[in-house]
Automatic annotation (TrEMBL):
Organism: Eutrema salsugineum (Saltwater cress)
Entry's EC annotation: 2.6.1.1
Cofactor(s) in the UniProt record: pyridoxal 5'-phosphate
Transferase among keywords: yes
Assembly notes: Homodimer.
UniProt xrefs under Pfam families: Aminotran_1_2
UniProt xrefs under PANTHER family: ASPARTATE AMINOTRANSFERASE, ASPARTATE AMINOTRANSFERASE 3, CHLOROPLASTIC
Organism classification: Eukaryota, Viridiplantae, Streptophyta, Embryophyta, Tracheophyta
Catalytically driven reaction(s): L-aspartate + 2-oxoglutarate = oxaloacetate + L-glutamate
Top-rank lineage group of the source organism: Eukaryota
Coiled coil segments of this chain: none
Protein name: Aspartate aminotransferase
NCBIfam families per the UniProt record, alphabetical: PRK09257.1
């Protein structure tokens, strides 16, 4: 709070407060806000109409979640939300997985369950099972007790805790993120205290990976820099490196001592196989080096609003891992004290039980397959309409999203004329599409492209 803000305001009461502030600030180090709290809390400040928040401007909606806000306001019966990455059934309805319902029933039937606080690190069994899920049951790092895992608030919370930990304890404060990336990444890491830079990733002219640019940029990064890697199903482009390219990335990063920070928000959603999608991470762990992994169960278990995720830090020794965990607790405790119990308990029930686990993998595969089938249907629908341009990227891209190449004007045309909602960068969530809505989307893309919007 600066005194000048008050002295420049026009009303007499504000000027009085400004004078008072200047008076109180003079010659003291005692925080001015503490001494003034009683002034602002007095009823007269309300009576004179001056809110202490009056200077705030209306913030814009979030570029992704704001799409849903706009969609909800639209009364049109044909509206379609392809903004946020949330899985929908063929009927366009949100899906609660069968295994999740079964796990919840088990939890409810168990009368011995209590609601005490979890430890700061969360549900310990969930943490162990999550590490196994992402690193592999036979991971040497787990066997050697070199991995510390803490339950966090979904993928976002895991990234934030990891970011703050690195900002506090890692010698390099710069994190390189892909260009483009999920819109929340730069905000999360900046607020965590890291300095954010980008590396080339996507080539709009080929609608594929700019592998040369990626290698050059990571090659030019200062030694020790942190590099955020999308483990699979890159958001928003749907473009992933091949396994051979991952191997080259790994060699380059290890040779320069770059620190890998994996964001795994879509394990199982890319290929339909949990193990295949975790391969890039396991390659980095297999070489004995260190890395961070943020996991989310939002998409692959459909636990979006339960906010279940985990942060794992793979270290060189059990001794270091123990000390890392002790410091992670110091990051978490003042942030939210300890994580919620329900979602992590659901995940633990499913991961610990062989039958439920197998059933989960089938449901996950069904979701991944439905998305792939939507890709084929949309591609065919555009071909049938003779829509100008090469749309083969729709079937080549991987995961939940298609990065269509539509520009912001075309997106806004599709929203206005066809009530189709998507992010302004032209990303569409294939998981929000169904056989019934494909023709409507294809019509709108065709119109946007042919009308030279
Ligand atoms: N990392 C990536 C790459 C993501 O795409 C998302 C979610 C997350 C992390 C975080 O998800 P979580 O905190 O819910 O686990 N991205 C969504 C949703 C699906 C969002 O923007 O919040 C998206 O539509 O891009």
């Amino acid at each position: 709070m600066k005194t000048t803000e008050f002295s420049s305001s026009s009303s007499p009461s504000d000027r009085r407060i400004g004078a008072l502030l200047r008076h109180l600030t003079a010659g003291t180090d005692f925080p001015i806000t503490d001494r003034l709290s009683s002034v602002f809390a007095s009823p007269t400040s309300g009576v004179t109409g001056g809110s202490v928040f009056a200077h705030l401007v209306q913030a814009p909606e979030d570029p992704i979640l704001g799409v849903t806000v706009a969609y909800n306001k639209d009364p049109s019966p044909i509206k379609l939300n392809l903004g946020v990455g949330a899985y929908r059934t063929e009927e366009g309805k949100p899906l609660v997985l069968n295994v999740v319902r079964k796990a919840e029933q088990q939890l409810i039937n168990d009368r011995s369950r209590i609601k005490e606080y979890l430890p700061i690190v969360g549900l310990v069994e969930f943490n162990k099972l999550s590490a196994k899920l992402i690193l592999g049951a036979d991971s040497p790092a787990i066997r050697e007790n070199r991995v510390t895992t803490v339950e966090c608030l979904s993928g976002t919370g895991s990234l934030r805790v990891g970011g703050e930990f690195l900002a506090k304890h890692y010698h390099q404060k710069t994190i390189y993120i892909t260009q483009p990336t999920w819109g929340n990444h730069p905000k999360i890491f900046t607020l965590a205290g890291l300095s954010v830079k980008t590396y080339r990733y996507y080539d709009p002219s080929t609608r594929g990976l700019n592998f040369q640019g990626l290698l050059e940029d990571l090659g030019a990064a200062p030694p020790g820099s942190i590099v955020l890697l999308h483990a699979c199903a890159h958001n928003p482009t749907g473009v992933d490196p091949t396994i051979q390219q991952w191997e080259q990335i790994r060699q380059l990063m290890r040779s320069k001592g770059l620190m890998p920070f994996f964001d795994s928000a879509y394990q199982g959603f890319a290929s339909g196989s949990l193990d295949t999608d975790a391969k890039p991470i396991r390659m980095f762990v297999a070489d004995g080096g260190e890395c961070l992994v943020a996991q989310s169960y939002a998409k692959n278990m459909g636990l979006y609003g339960e906010r279940v995720g985990a942060l794992s830090i793979v270290c060189k020794s059990a001794d270091v891992a123990g000390r890392v965990e002790s410091q992670l607790k110091l990051v978490i405790r003042p942030m939210y004290s300890s994580p919620p119990i329900h979602g992590a308990s659901i995940v633990a029930v499913i991961l610990r039980d062989r039958n439920l686990f197998n059933e989960w993998t089938l449901e996950l595969k069904a979701m991944a397959d439905r998305i792939i089938s939507m890709r084929k249907q949309l591609f065919e629908a555009l071909r049938a309409r003779g829509t100008p341009g090469d749309w083969s990227h729709i079937i080549k891209q991987i995961g939940m999203f298609t990065f269509t190449g539509l520009n912001p004007a075309q997106v806004s045309f599709m929203t206005k004329e066809y009530h189709i909602y998507m992010t302004s960068d032209g990303r569409i969530s294939m998981a929000g599409l169904s056989s019934k809505t494909v023709p409507h989307l294809a019509d709108s893309i065709h119109a946007a492209v042919t009308k030279n919007v």
